[in-house]
Structures are given as C-alpha cells and as structure tokens.
Queue: 2 jobs
Job 1
Amino acid sequence: MRATMGKEEKQEAKETEQSQNSSESSSGKSSLRRAIESITSLISLSYSIKIFSAKWKTIRTKLEDLSSGLEAVENCEASENAILSGIVSGICQTVNECHDLARRCVDLSYSGKLLMQSDLDILSARLDLHARNLSDIYNAGVLTRRFAIVVSRPGNGACRDDMRFYVRDLMTRMKIGDAEMKRQALLNLHEALVEDDKYVKVVVEHGEIVHVLASFLDFSHDVRIQELSAKIVSVISGFGSYKVVLIGAGIIAPLIRVLECGSVVGKEEAAKSLQRLTENSDNGWSISAHGGVTALLKLCSGGDGSEIRAELVGPACGALKNLVGIEEIKRFMVEEGVISTFIGLTRSKDEVLQINSIEFLQNIASGDEAIRVMVSKEGGIQALVRVLATRSVACSCKVRETAMRAIENLCFRNANSISLLIKYGFVDQLMFFLQHGEVSIQELALKVSIRMCGKSEEAKKAMGDANFMTELVKFLDSKSFEVREMAAEALSNMVRVPKNRKRFVQDDRNMCLLLQRFDPKQVNTGNKKLLFSILMSLTSCNSGRRKIAHSGYLKNIEKLAEDEVSDAKKLVKKLSTNRFRSMLSGIWH
C-alpha cells in the first residue's frame, strides 16, 4: 500500500513540476508578446508627435529593429528562461517609460525642452543596449532556432511597406542571428537586390544596413559573411545616386581591407565596388589615404602572391584607370612601375581586362609627353600593334577599336613614334582593317590613315607602297559623307609625294573612280575642294594631265569653271597652260 502510494506521489510531483515549467514557459512567451505589442503601439503613437521629430524618427527606427528582434526570439526555444525574462523585463520597463515620454510630447506637457531632449537621448541609448543584449544572447547560444519563421519575400509589385518589413526582418537577423542566420539573411538580401532593384532604395533608406555591411566587411571572420556583404555593396555601388550613402558609411576602408586580406570572391566584389566608386574622382584621395592604390597595383601585377584572374584584375585595372586623373596619384603609380605592368596586361585573353589596360595606358599618357615617351620605350607601341595583329575570334572588334584609338591618341605627336609604328608592321594592319574590318573599325582606320600621312613623309611613302590609294579611292563612293571626306583628305595628302602620284595615275581605275565624282549625275559626290586638290596634284605629272584632259569628265570640270567655281577655274587654267606649252613645244621641235 505504501509502495503504491509512493509511486502515486512521485507521479503527482512530476506532473506538478511539468505544469509549473509549462506555466513558466507560457508566462515567458506572454511577456514577450506583450512587449512586442507594446512596442507596436508606441511606434504608432510616435507618428502623432510633432516636436523633436529627428530624435523620434531615430527612436522609431530603433523600436522597429527591437520589435523585429523580439519577433525572431519569439520563434525560438529558450534553454534558460531566466536570462530571456530578464532582458524582456528590462525592455518592457524602457518601453513603458518611452510611452510616458511620447504621451507628454503629444500633449506638450513636459517641463522643459532641454530636459526632454536629454531624456530622449538616454532612452535612445537604452534601446541600443537592449538590442546589443538580444544579439549577445543569440550569439552565445542561449536561444536555439526551433521553428523560426522566416518572412517570405513579397511578390512582384508588392507595396513599399511590405518590402520595408521584409528588409527590416533581414536586418534583424543580421544583427542578432548566429552565423548561419546572418549568412542566410545576407543571401536573401542579395537575391532580392539582384532580382528587383527597388529593394536597393529600401536598403539605402533603412540606413543602418549599410553600416552593418561595413562592419561585416571589416570585422567578420566568417568568409561567407564577408563575401555576401561585399556582393551586396557591389550591387548598391552600381547605382550612382546611392554611392554617396556608401561613402558616408565609411565603406572605402573596409573594402580595401577585403582587397588586401579577403577571399578571391571577396576581392573581386571589393574591386568592382572600388571601380564604381572611383568614377567620382573626389573619392580618389580617400582610397589613396587607406592604401587602396598600392593594394590595387599589387593585384594587377600579381604582387599579392595570387594568380592573375581576369575577374579580379579587370575591375582593379578599371579603378586605377579612374584615378590617373589625379596628378599626385598618377606620379606615384609611375614610380611604382605601373607602365610595364599594364603593357603586360594588354596581352590578356580577357576582353574587359585588355580594354581596361589599353585605356589605362592611353589615359595616363594623355597630355604628358614624358609618360608618352616612357610608354613607347617600354614597348607600349609594339604591344598595341600586336593587339591589332591578333586575328583570332577571341580578340573582339571592341578590343581592336580600343587599341586603334590608343594608337591614334598616343603615336602621332612625333615622327619617332610613327617610325616605330611602321617598323612594327602597323601599315599592314591598317590596310587589313580598311579592306576587311567592320564599319566602325574601318572608319577608325580611315581617321588614323589621315593622321599618319598628314604627319610623316615616311608614312606617306610606306602607305603608297602598301597600295593604300587603291583602297582609299573606293571610299569616295561611300554612302557616308564623313567616310567620303576622310578618304578624300587622306588621298589629298598622299598624292603630294611624286612617287605616289605616278603610282595612282598608272592605274586607270583610280583615275576613273576619281573623275566620276565630277559627274553631275553622281549622288555621292563628296567634298569638291578636296577632290580638286587631288586633281591639281596629279596635274604635276605628264600622264596625269593627259588622262584628265582626254577623259570624258573634263567637260564637267569646264562647266563648273564656267559657273565660277574657283578650284575648277584653276584646274582648267593649269590644263590649258600646259596644253598650250605642249603645242608650242611641238611647233618648235
């Protein structure tokens, strides 16, 4: 009987203990729920406050974050109720005091402005403390996620409030979550930003998220957290109007630290962000002050001990290209041997890296004869010609156009550079693009042809030997006025050389195509002044004069002379004078 009673007493005691534990758990949950509801009520009340608006806006943001934190905690299992209860109790006390202050601000029943401002500052600091306490117990493992509810991302076309709620929930998880929860929140945020750029504005408006991201970049030892933070910053930096927010949050120094010490993925994303941020040269000094220029140079030269990856070096190259406009930074780069580094990078098989390296050389030498000479001496001209000589599909038209522009801007300041171009076979490359290039690079080749034969007698002769005139005369019939103009100008320069004149006249097709431009039936006639200039040069040789005089197009030129076209009158006069001289010479002999 006693044994039976003993069992019954034990069972009853066990049930009583379970009931008490259940009551405690229920009590803990209910106090948590009351705290959340009280905060929600306070937030609603705060919108009615018309004074100290800036302070109440800050407090409201902190209350929203605290509410999100408590909601996350509510969906967790507490292993020690006492710790959680203590924190919730403190929050409730602060919220009650905040209610009192809010009511007094609404009713304008406070005793003094300075005292109220002081009370609000104290209250704001206490809210920060509560948020830290929540984060601490989460990170310490006091709370474990059991069936934590993850807020679903609103669908397409969702209202701004729903988007804000979702972002605020992610923010809370970033702040108070363990490493896994932080990673998941960052991943969800990155996906949202990539798939719907309206989230970028929501994130920037929240403000604190950018500071949290900067903190993760700077202090997180979790590689994945750092990488995801760098990716999010990279997305935001792609929006011009939000770059100032990143700069204001002090993002440059953390990005440079990732560039120096981060993972490969982290470095790539940091380099992309820095490239975008340096589009505004005002940020150049900040990057330089934090050692960013040195870090970028190391990446481009492989001096950080890692293999050169186009995905990483491309944007690093782009960032340095943006910084060469600052004279002091440019000089530092040159002293660090940047010229030879970037000449080497022009050989890359990656399009973006090739373009960035070529444009860098062009920019750094722009308006600086000493650096132009340095680029030439270190093999820059040969490297650019080598890019054009690449016939593989891997070398895109865009890369060739970039190289052609760089040659145009760098190589026609002095005869020595033109001689080097000829030596390295550039004339053959130019001829190839005139014959086989796409329209855009054909036009570039024409522009370069004008520059080349307009600056150097050696170039005119070399181009004549390469049969340039036969190609140029074909462009006189182009539908594009600009192309016809450029072809005529190049020809006008080239036929000033006696050897080129003879070569041009010897080919009847050349003469026919040129003289056809004076047929009134022709639509694409071109610039008559340049065309007359070519004919005047050709009359300097006997065969040229004869072919013009005996052509069926002479009557068109004479008609223009009758219409008082001065160039036509000069040409007819020269032809007539020479004809009269020939007649006299025949009579005399």
Job 2
Amino acid sequence: MVSLKLRAILFPFQMEPRREMLLQELGEMWDEIGETEEDRREMLHALEEDCLNVYRVKVAQVKQYRAQLQREIADSVAEVAAICATIGEPSTTVHIACSSLQSTGNLKEELGSITPELEEMRRRREERRRKFSEVTELINRIEQEMKPSKQLHLTMDNSDLTIRRLEELRAYLQDLQLEKDSRVRKMTELMGSLHSSSLVLGMDFRETNLHHDDEGDISDDAIARLVSEIGRLREIKRNRMQKLQDLLATMLDLWNLMDTPSEEQKRFQSVACNIAASEDEITERDALSMEFINNVEAEVVRLERLKECRMKDLVLKKYDELNEIRRRAHVPVENEDDAMMMFDAIDSDFRVCMTHCFADAKRSLILERLEVQISEAKDEEFSRKDVLEKMEKWQAALEEESWLEEYNRNENRYNVGKGTHLVLKRAEKARALVSKMPAMAEALITKVVAWEKERGAKFEYDGDGLLDMLEEYNNTRKEKEQERKRQRDQRRMLGQGTGESPVVRPPPKNIKNVTRTLSMGGSSTGGKKASASVSSRPSTPSFLKSPMSARRSDEGQMLLSRAVEEDDLL
C-alpha cells in the first residue's frame, strides 16, 4: 500500500480513481513479486524524484512563460511610448496604458489590455507614414520637374512623424506648387509671345531653336532657352521693323513727290500706318515677313525708277511750289528758266559722261536743294505773316484813299440820283479809314522794325524795301497835304479878291449816268475829259503798283469794312 506521505507528495490534491487504482495495482504486484520494504521505499523514492523533476521542468517552463509575458508587456509599453514620441502624441497616452496595467490582476490580462492600444498606435503610425510618403513624393516630383539636375531628394524620416513636421512639409509643398503654377503661367506667356513673334515674322515655329519637349518643361534651363529665343526673335523683329519703316518713309516721300494716286497706294496703305508704330503695336500676321518686306522694297525700287523718268517734271513742280510760296510771301521769285537750264546741263553731262549714277546724283541734289528752299520759304512766309496781314489792310486803305481822291475831284459828287446814297456811304467809310492810315502806317513800321531786328535782314516786299515804301508814302502824303493846303489858300485869296461867292451849278440832266460814272470812279463829261482828269492827277507811287490795285470795288468794300472794324477795336 502507498503511504499517506507518498500520496501527499505525489498527489497533493484529491486523487482521481484511476490514479488510486494504479497505486493499488502497483502494491499488489510488489506483494506478488515479493519486493522488500526497502526496495519498495527506493522505488517509491525514485518515483518521487521523477515526480519532482516533472514539477521542476514545469515550474521552469512557467517561469519562462511568465518572463515572456512580462517582456511582451514591457516591449508593448515601450513601443507604445516610442510610437507616441514618433507621431507626436502626448505622454498622457502612455500613462493611461500603464495605469490600466496596474489595475489588472495577472500578466495575461495586462497583455490583453495593452495589445489593443498597441495595435491602435501602430495603425496611426502607418497612417501618418502614408501621409508623409504622399507629401514627400509630391515634393520630389515637383522639384524634379523644376530642377531635373538636382540629385538629392527628400526622404521620409521615420523618427519624426509629428503633425508639426507634416505641416512643414505641406507648407513647403504648397510653396512648390505656387512656384510651379507661376512657372507654368510664365511658360504659357513666353510660348504665346514666341508664337506671336513667329507669326509676325512669318516664321514656322519649328524654325526656332527650341526642343520639342520644351513646351511642357518648366525647368530653369527650359525657361532660359525660351527667354533667349524670344530675345533673338525680338532682335530680328526690331531690325526688320527698322528696315520696313525706312522703306515706308521713302515710299511716302515718293508718293508725295510724284502725287501717286490713291488707287496705287491702296496696296500698301494699311502697312503705311505702321511707320510710327512701336514694337508691341505690330501684331499682324506676316507683317514683318521677309516676303512682305521684299515686296515693299520692290515697290520702292519701282517708285525710284519712276522718279528718275519723271525727274524733270518733279523739278518743275517743286519750282512752281517754291515760287507760289514766295509769291504769297511777296519775296522775289526765281526764274523758272534757270532750273530748266540746270536740268538740261545735267542731261548733257549724262550724255557726255554716259554715267547714269552721276545724273541721278545731280538730279537728287537739285530736288534736295529745292526741298530745303521750300522749307526755308515756308518758314519765311510764316515769319512774315503778321506784317503781310497788316500790309494787306494798308493796301486796301490805299485803294480807298485813291478812290476818295478821285471822288473828291468829281464836281458832280453831290448830285442826287439812284445809288447816290451808296456812294456817299462808301465815301464816309473811306474818310474814316483814311484818317486812320497814319496810325496803320506807324503800326506797320513797328512790325517791320521788330521783324528786321529779330531776323537781322531787310524786309523786302516784291523786291523793294518795305520801310522805304512806307517812307515814300509818308513823304507823298505830306506833299499832298501841302498841295491841298496851297490850293485852299489860293482859292481863299481868289475869293477875297473878286468878292464873288461860289456858283452852284444845276444838276445834270442824266442823273443815272452821273451816278454810274461816280461809282466806277470816272467823270460824266466823256472819255476825253476823263482821260484829261486822269492825266492831271499826280502819278501813282511805286508802292501802289501791286496786284492789289486790280481788285474789284466789292472786294475793296469788304476789306474796308473789316479794316475799319479791326482798327476801331485797336
């Protein structure tokens, strides 16, 4: 039988019936075998050692398992703490996890409580890594587009997955995206400018120095190449524009010189407006193409050849223009035969020398000199404008003075008839104007003296000095006044000697003829008496011998009225 002590050792708990049966069967076999008590004790002792060894092995295994659980718990807590530090979570998360461990009773429960927290933290770390990876990939891609030569790329730092670092990367990514958008807009503008310049120059875009891949490239090298190509096209555009404007200026001069009809000008009329245009204002397609410039150049060559054929007519036309300006300014006019003699001399030189360039140069020199003379004549005419206007009024007054003198010599001026009131009204206006003539002459002299002082030259009017003419007028006026005074004194002395009063003659029978004669400035006594009265008048001074003396009476009346009104204002 198994002792109670052995039972207590081997089976500390209540033994199952099967184990009890095994021990009973073992004792019966020992009894049957005849084992001694000593042998039985040794075998039981061996059995006890075997049981203890089994326990020891089991305890060792349990200790190892406990240590494993403790290690797993510690590793889980450390990993949670590391993940929190990596993703920037506050330390309260670790404290909460540790407090949950202390509240549990055994290791398995502790491990079971920390495992869900660890899985959650791992999930959040992977989510944060994914976000970092996306931002980092976008940054590297944009930097590669803008700076393909850059070898270093941004890598993700697994030790720093905080929100702060993620926001920094996102801010940097936003700056890169803004820079990329700016480069895309700049490339679009530059490409537009390049296409526009190519169209204006009539060039194919493939003729430029750009690569086919540059249209979508936003790198620094692509932008630099594009800017350089645009600069090259602009330089070509400026050179062609300068050439075209020079050709257009020559064309306009030739048009004006030869009075080219508008029908012939229509072909280049639209582009002629670009003669003063700036570089940015010329945007029409093929406006500066070589084909178009060659067409303009060919037209200029054609006009130059036409000018050579019409050179003599052009010279005569310019001489006529020059003489017309001088006639308006009352400056001595050159003889037209001199120009023809000069031109014939050039033609003779051409026939002798047989040098076409020599003749062309001489003819061009004549035209250039005429252009200079026309410009100088226009300036001269403008500078003499004030003096000529006053001279025109003064000449109108001279005509009225001459008419008034003839009217006063007519003995029938007071006869009543049809139209007499008009003649009397004109005589009244003429007297008013004649009374202002000394002041008009003084004002005219002042203007002439100022002009001569400013220009340093003598003011000539149709070849005569204007101051000399005015001086002659003043002397003649004084002589006339003295003659009138002498005649009045003589009549007064004759009247006192005879004691007779002036006889009033009866009016003539034909009043209409008298009135008509007075209005025409003549006499009613017929052609012989009229010629006699004209011959008895003093001779007309040289300053009255001008085209103004041929004016009609109605023009004289208009100038007279205007002069009276202006002088009244003065």
